[in-house]
Amino acid sequence: MRSLLFVPGDSEKKFAKALASRADALILDLEDSVAASAKEGARKIVRAAIEEARRKKSRPLIYVRVNPLESGLLEADLDTVIPARPHGVMLPKSRGGSDVMQLSTKLAVREAECDLPDGEVSILPIATESASALFNMGSYAGASRRLSALTWGAEDLSADVGASTNRLDDGAYTDPYRLARALALFAATSAEIAPIDTVFVNFRDKAGLEAECAAARRDGFTGKLAIHPDQVAIINAAFTPSPEAIARARAILDAFVANPDAGVLGLNGEMIDRPHIRRAERLLEAAKAAGVD
Ligand code: COA
Ligand code: MG
């Protein structure tokens, strides 16, 4: 998943547009972009949207952002949308691996009731939305085999902390949010799931989005959340490995195949060893997923 596009769950019009956006995944939102009075209507729209997407031959992955565990709204969200078989559920305000386990149990009950394969529905937590959650970032590893990816958010975290802003004048995140971003990257990596970078909210600022994508890819994120269809192409391009990068990854693996007993080798004047193999394998996996291998 390179691009994951948020779609407010109460908007049928935006869903139709999102389906045509070429995003790798859509996140149909029942949480913050839907007013309390519109939640029940949104659940029904989201359910019908998933059913519609399922009937299409070529379609993005469909995730639903449900309301948080302690919201009192989650049971009704799951009761309405799980029978339609979304690929996954995004869990906002996640406090750690134990929240994922709780959600997993709720999903297992619905899967059994709906005759769906056990474990079919994936979980994608937003892992940095409160200060206390940051102290549990190591707890995702091994929490559930449903975990597919993990992402982070700066808006709810800054509200929790009481910060006046989370960005400097030049657009860079301030230190507390840089820490949250880094922890999300390490939490996902240690749990062996995809690290997904957070939203870039200035959806008219293409250069700003490109720069943030480049920084995310550089650091090891494999995809990014989007809030507007115009962001999808930029994100897809940024997280699709280039032909040069693919060729280099192949050359690294070929060098070790040709020298099976070597621990370290020289390639084009550069030392390569075990970490380079892992990185090359990952890059080729990403290329395959993007259809450019
Ligand atoms: N998914 C699908 N379609 C979208 C979209 C989205 N996320 N964002 C915008 N569009 C559509 C608009 O409906 C509009 O369609 P139209 O041409 O048929 O009228 C078109 O794309 C152009 O939109 P634009 O006028 O540029 O933006 P806007 O002012 O209508 O919408 C937002 C701006 C921020 C309200 C909108 O992008 C949005 O709803 N984003 C998702 C918000 C969200 O889910 N947040 C939760 C996670 S942070
Ligand atoms: Mg939020």
Task: Write up this protein.
The protein has 293 residues and is an alpha/beta fold. 43% of the residues lie in helices and 14% in strands. It contains ten helices and ten strands. Strand 4, helix 4 and strand 5 (122-125) form a beta-alpha-beta unit. Helix 2 runs parallel beside helix 3 and helix 9 (243-258) crosses helix 10. The longest helix has 17 residues, at 39-55. It is globular. The relative contact order is 0.11. The model has no long low-confidence stretch (mean pLDDT 96). Magnesium ion (MG) binds next to helix 5.
Question: Which labels suit this protein?
Answer:
10 strands; binds magnesium ion; alpha/beta; 10 helices; globular; 293 residues; single chain; TIM Barrel; 2 domains; two-stranded antiparallel sheet; eight-stranded parallel sheet; binds coenzyme A
Quickly describe the structure.
The chain is of the alpha/beta class. It has ten helices and ten strands. Helix 9 crosses helix 10.
Give the distance, in angstroms, between the N- and C-terminal Cα atoms: 15 Å
Instruction: Estimate the mean pLDDT confidence.
Output: 96
> How large is the share of residues in beta strands?
5-15%
> Which structural class matches the secondary elements?
alpha/beta
Which sequence of strands runs across the widest sheet? 5-4-3-2-1-8-7-6
